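Hi R.,

Here's the chain you asked about this morning:
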Amino acid sequence: MGHCIYCREEKDNNQFTLEHVVPQFLGGAYAPDFLKTRNVCKSCNSNLGLFVDASFEKNWIVSNWLRQTSSAFYDKDNPAEVSLSCMGNTDLCPPDLPEGHVCEMWLGPHGEQVFWLRPHDERLSAYVGGNPRTTKSIKTRAYFLFSENTSLDPFKTLLSFEKAFHGRRVKKVLCGEVDGVDPASFGFTQPDDLDTVRKEFFLANTEGEQMRKMQVKVNQRFDQRFLCKLAIGVAFCLFGHKVLDSTYGKELHKGLWYREGNDKPEVRGSTYFSDNVVPHFNNLVGFPNAVTLMLLSTPDGVSLNLNINSKLNWSILCASNETLTTDDVAKIGDGQILLLVRALKTGIYLDLPFYIACKYGITSHPELNNILEKSNMKVV
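And the predicted structure, written out as C-alpha cells:
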C-alpha cells in the first residue's frame, strides 16, 4: 500500500505514478531528482494537473509571460517554434459560429493573427484556451493570417503555426499564400466552402488599422490551490511525511482542496494579487526569461518563493518549525535556488548567496552566463 501526499489516502502500489513536483510547464522535467516522487496516485496526478496546475498555467497573465520566455531563446541559425500569445476573446462573430463558441485571438511571433473558434465553458472561462478536456475531444477550427512582418523570418512563423494547438483536434486553415512551401507539411488543411467564407470574413476584418475589442477573464484566486500543492510537494520531498501530518501541513492540505463555502485555510504567504509585495524583490531573486524557486529559512520555518521572468512573484511557507529538526534546516543553509529554463532544457540548483553573487557580477557561473548569452540580456 502507498500513501498519496495530495489526497492523503492509502491505495495499492499500482495506483501510483511519477509526479514532477515542479510542473513541467515551469520546466520541472529539468529539476533535480529529489523534486520528483512516486508518492502521488494516478487520480491526483491527472485531476490536479487539469484543475489545479492548469488553473495556474492557463491564467492569462502567467500563460503569456511563459510564452514570452519561450520566445526569448529563439536562434535564427537553429530555428524552432515559439509559442503564440493569447489576446483574449474577440468581438468578431464569423459566419456560422456554432452556438456556445467563442472566437479567441492569438498573436504569432511577428504579429500574425490567429482566430480559434472553440467551445466556451463558463465554469472554466478564465482558462486561456478554454476547458482543456473539451478542447482535446471536440473538433474545432482555427484561421491563420500572416502579417507584414512575417517576411522577416517566415520559417519561424511557419514552425510556430505548425506547433500551435498541439494535442487538440484543430483544423488549421491558412488565410493567405506562401511560396515554395506546401502548407499541408505544416499541418494546414484544404479549406471547405465554410472555411472559404470565413477566410474572406477574417481578411476583411483585419486589414488596415481596425480596432478590435478583447475580453480576458481572470480569477483572482487562480493561484491559491496551486501554491498549496507546490508547497506540499516540495516540503514532502525535503522533509518527508512528518510535515504533512503537522498542524500547518493540514492547513496546506485544506488549501489544496479548498472550495467556496469551506473554512479558509490558515496558509502563510502571498499570492499574485496580494498587497504585501516587496519592491525590487522580483529583480533580486528572479532571472530574466527563466523560472526560479527559492527556499529560505525564516523564523516560522522554510518558505518557498516562485518567480517567473523577474516579473511575477509568489511566496508560501511550505514547512513550519513545529516539525523541523536542526538537520532539516541545515539542508536549506543560507538559502537555495533552483533556476529553470524550459526552452533550453536546463535546470540549475545553487546556494542562494552564490546565485546573488553571480547576478551582481561578483563571481560567475558558466551555465548562468550561457543563459544570458543565448537570450542577449544582462542580469542587472
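The chain has two domains: 2-58+220-375, 78-215.

Let me know if you need anything else.
M.
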